[in-house]
Structures are given as C-alpha cells and as structure tokens.
Write a structure and sequence with these properties.
Largest sheet: 6 strands, antiparallel
Radius of gyration: 42 Å
Strand order of the largest sheet: 2-1-4-5-6-7
Shape: elongated
Strand content: 15-25%
Structural class: alpha/beta
Length: 560
Amino acid sequence: MLVELRAENYAVIDHAIAVFGPGLNLLTGETGAGKSILVDALALLMGGKSSADVVRHGADKAVVACVYESTAGAEAVLEENGIDSEGHDIILRREILANGKGRVFVNNQPATVAVLKQLAPELALVHAQSETLSSFDLAQQRILLDRFGGISCDAAAAAYARWRAAADKLNDLLQGEQDRLHMVDLWSYQSKEIESARLEAGEDEALETEKRVLANAEKLYAAAMGAFDQLYEGGASAESALKAALRNVEELARYDNRFAESVQQLSSARATLSDLGASLRDYAEGINASPERLAEIEDRLALLDRLKRKYGKTVADVIAFGQDVAGKLAEVVDRDEILKKLRADLEQASAEYRKAASSLTSQRQAAGAKLAKLAESQINSLAMKVRFEVAIAADERESGWTSTGWDQVEYHIATNPGEPMKPLTEIASGGEMSRVMLALKVAVEESSAKTRKVNPTPRTLVFDEIDIGIGGRAAEAVGQKLKALGRAQQVLCVTHLPQIAAFADQHLVVEKREQDGRTKTQIRTLDDRARNHEVARMLSGAKVTDTSLQHAAQMIAASR
C-alpha cells in the first residue's frame, strides 16, 4: 500500500505531501491545481521517463519520493539488487536536475531506474490520463488477456528462439554456398600446407632452445667441464677442500660435541657438490655439436615462421586455423548431409514451436471466453448495455510467428442493441471508452487477486481521471465499482465528479494559491465536514449553497 507521496519543486508544486490510507483514496480540486501532476510523480517513481521540464522554474532540481508498505516480491527485488531492507517499508526517491540528469535512491541507497521498473509490478499499477483506448493496441490487448489468464509465454519464446536460430543457420548455409565454392581451392591449399607441416603446439619454443644449445655447443661444453673440474676433479677443487675441512672438524667433534652438527653440514655439502658435479659432467657429455641437426632445426623454424606469418601469431593459432579450414571443407564436401541435418533440426524446432503456440492459443481461447463474460458484466454494471467478446485469430503461417505466439487478440464490442460487433478502438464516445477501460482493468485485477496463492499486500491501483466524459447514473456506477475494488486493494483516483467523490474512504483535496508572486500547491486530507463542503463545491461550482451542502451530505450517506 502507498503510505505517503512527496513532491518538491516538481512542475507547479513547490512542496506537497499526500498521506494515503487503505481503500478508495480520491483526489479532487480545481482544474490546474496539480492532481494529475501527483499521479505523474508517482509514475516517475515507478520507473517512468523523466525530463528537465518537470523542474519548477528557478529550482536546481525536482524531488519526488514515496513510502510503500513492502511485499515479499519487493523484498526479493531489493535482495537481488544488493539493496538493504528498511523494515516493513520501502522508500523510493528520485531527483531530476535542471540539466536533465537525475539520481535514484531506494531505501536511501543509490539505485537505478531499472530497479524502480523491477519494483513497480509489486507496488503500483498506474493508469495515466493519457492512456486511452486509442493506445490500447493489439499487443496491449493480448498482454491484458495473458495477465487475466495467468498465461506465460516463456515456453513459446524459448521455442521461437530455437526455431529462429535453426532457420538462420540453414539460410546462411544456402545463401553462402556460392561463396564457399569459390573458396574451396584456397581452403584446400591452406589445409594441405598446414596438415603437411605436422605441427605440435609449442614446438617453436622448444626448437629455439635446442638451437641456442647447438649454436653454442663448444662454449657450453667448456663451461660445464670447467665448472666440473673446479668443483670435483682438480687438485685444488672445492671437493678436496671440503674433504680436508671435514677431517679437521671430525677431529674437533671427537673432543667437543658442539661441532657434531658442523660435521653433518659439511657431509651434506660434499654430497650436494658431488651431485652437482655429476650433473655438469652428464650435461657436457650429452652435448652433440651436430651441424646437421642445427641445419635441420633452422629449416623447421623457418617453416614455422612462414606459417605463423600467414595463419597466426603462434603455432597453436596456426593449428586452430587449419582445423577451421578443414571444417569448412568438410561442410562443402558433406553439404548434403549437413543440409539434411539442418533441415531436420529446423523441422524439430518448428514442431516444438507449433506445440507451444497451439498451447498458448488454447489457453487464450479459454481465458478469452471467461474475460468476455466477466468484462461484459462489469461494463453493463456501469450503466451500459453492451455485448463484448475476445476474438483470437491464430496465424499459423511462419510469417505470423512471434516470441509471444501466433495469436492476434482483439477485443470487440457492440454498445447498442442491434449493432454489429466492432473493434474496441472504434468506440466513439469518451464516456464509453472510460467505462470500458475501467471495467476491463477491474475485471483483470479482481481475477488476479482471486487466483493468488498467497496474500501479499495488495498493489496500489491508480486511475487518473478515467471518468472523463461520463456523468449522472454512469458516474455513480463508476464510483460503486471503484469502491468495490477498494475493498480488496488500495485505489487512488483523480476525479472531477461529485458522484464518484462521495464514495471516498479517504478524500484529499489539491489546492493552489498565490504567495509572494508564485503559485504554491498544498494537499489536505478532509474530515467529514470539509469533505461534505468539497463535494458540495463539485456539485454547485464556486458558490456553495445550503442546497448543495444538503445534497452532498445525502450523496455521501447513500454511498456508505
């Protein structure tokens, strides 16, 4: 439930706070006072598009904020986005700077507009004044039906993606066949050249090391044998010196135990020296100063360099290039088999999509029949007498396939007896349009509430002057419908009609006044007396009379 809404330097509003309660919350006031601006501010907090135009003249920024009672779904969205919870409430704030930039905060933590859009379905559903049946296109009609029936398009979307990918792959093969045939000779040459080299990944590095050894064989032999002689073989070798030192230290250790460890250390040093000497000797003996091997290595490295210049920076890259070329050749050679497989894959993907789309059609037909019956009843309860149907046409041609199925959903209505059914968007009367839209919204929301498996805090439904163009008995019917809807969910409605205002559970009036040469807006929650006076003003205009006050009191009493 929406608890509080604040706006500061937003459009004509300098600073305003609106506090809401459960049930039907109605906002009234003179034209231009800022009622619809408050709804626009709430839509902005639900992730709507912002503009620097909303910043009040002379201000650096506009700020809108609200407090909602939290829901389990909203808490999950916060956790998913790494935003800490603030108890039982969710605080949303959005700042729009005069330069057009903006900032978003959720629970006083930096966030993004994307987070607001994720939270919106859990918190509020805003039906703005600009939303008319002319914008209620076929896609929106399908979405509303799917929402009513709890229909998910996920399976169809996944099947459509698989079918689209399979079709694109087959088309690419067929369309690229001519180019492939032109490339066959080049691919064949490249593949043979790389294959004949019998490459091994990393062999160029190993060959470079072996080349350095062979090119400097004499120097390496002399260095290894010189070190061996100095460490082990020579008369003044390190091994001889260690041997003599060991004898003297052993003599010391016979009389003083402090040198026992030194004996062990010298013995270990002699063993290490012996191992190192043996390694140097073996290395020197293993050096093969072979000019033939050196020439062979240089030729191999020259071949590798030539291949790397043509096909890749490393031998591994050359091998990968060869594998890719070989695969392309295999596709050409095995074209018939590949085409057969791709066509089989496409046929399977098509069958899966047809199954998913057919399932959607069946679900929509069942949901459409229920929605038509319920919507017709709801519309007729708003002082109309109509026939209503949901037409579902399945376009099973591939050109009609989409990620949401192949159905075209269109609402048809006959507003007078004896008239033929016509598309909903061809309704001419503004009052009829408003009532049909309200009835549809109510039908869907009531059905959605009944099918919930859990009982989360109800979402806030917002209607901005959806009662335009109606009056009298129809207005009273709309008020009754909004009141009934408010029993299950919080409802906010901007209205100019006293017949609707009489049904309010909470009545707020939006007023503007001039102060210091500037227009200021304030919002008041009305008590019973003030409410009676406001309904009377709506009945009689600027001058409130005893008769209008009495009539207002009767209307409010009757609404209860």
